Automatic annotation (TrEMBL):
It comes from Acetobacter cibinongensis. Substrate binds at residues 59, 66-68, 125, 151. This is Alpha-ketoglutarate-dependent dioxygenase AlkB. Signal peptide: none annotated. One of its GO terms (molecular function) is oxidative RNA demethylase activity. Fe cation binds at residues 121, 123, 177. NCBIfam families: PRK15401.1 (NF011930). GO terms for cellular component: cytoplasm. The lineage of its organism: Bacteria, Pseudomonadati, Pseudomonadota, Alphaproteobacteria, Acetobacterales. Residues 103-203 form the Fe2OG dioxygenase domain. One of its GO terms (biological process) is oxidative RNA demethylation. Binds 1 Fe(2+) ion per subunit. Its cofactor is Fe(2+). Keywords: Dioxygenase, Iron, Metal-binding, Oxidoreductase. It comes from the Bacteria.
């Protein structure tokens, strides 16, 4: 099904289900080259989701701040290339949601374990906000929080499940969002975790 969450935010329920096993295998292959790791915020906090990247640019945070880098700071090597399947799924989801010509160059992989969460934030490190963001959920379900263009708008919660893809463009691109702590569980494909793939076009 194709549901509009708010103008510009289109939920494609189950869109990635046919590719879920292959996507999971590709995540493992990327993580074998660029391990999932815990990152730190400039303020001294620690993110509870483990992260890695593929594509020409990867999102990182540490004492120096949030940014996109061409190299993995752990290995000083380029991030692994975007698997062909990742690009296909992201481009076809964007097209289905009405955004043709989306060609992401960055994919952030988030791994949530029981208790991992992500506080309300905006994605604004990309510089180019004309392109949508595509997110793919795999594994355990999580309650996603969808706010407004300012922090003062109370978010509402929405369940994101295995195989769901959401395309966030236009007005939705700069909305505050986050996820509630992951509830413990077991998923046949991913075990005790949830993976989220976030595809972006980041201006070089
Ligand atoms: C709405 N990730 O990595 S996915 C992130 O579940 C992030 O891992 C969450 O927020 C996760 O930045 C949420 C859905 C999502 C991703 C990016 C967005 C929603 C978005 C960008 C703009 C608006
Ligand atoms: Fe985000």
């Amino acid at each position: 099904s194709r549901v509009t969450l708010s103008p510009g935010a289109i939920v494609l329920r189950g869109f990635a289900l046919p590719d879920a096993e292959a996507l999971h295998a590709a995540i493992r292959a990327v993580a074998a080259q660029a391990p999932l790791r815990t990152m730190h915020t400039p303020g001294g906090g620690t993110l509870s989701a483990a992260m890695t990247n593929c594509g020409t640019l990867g999102w990182v945070t540490d004492k120096a701040g949030y940014r996109y880098t061409p190299q993995d700071p752990l290995s000083h090597r380029p991030w692994p290339p975007l698997p062909a399947l990742f690009a296909q799924v992201a481009t076809s989801a964007a097209q289905t949601a009405g955004f043709s010509g989306f060609h992401p160059n960055a994919c952030l992989i988030n791994r949530y374990e029981a208790g991992s969460r992500m506080g309300l934030h905006q994605d604004k490190d990309e510089k180019d906000f004309t392109q949508p963001i595509v997110s793919v959920s795999l594994g355990l379900p999580i309650h996603f929080l969808w706010g407004g263009l300012t922090r003062s708008v109370s978010p509402f919660s929405f369940l994101l499940e295995h195989g769901d893809v959401v395309v966030w463009g236009g007005k939705a691109r700069l909305h505050y969002h986050g996820v509630k702590p992951l509830a413990a569980g077991q998923h046949p494909l991913t075990g005790s975790c949830r993976f989220n793939l976030t595809f972006r076009f980041v201006a070089p």
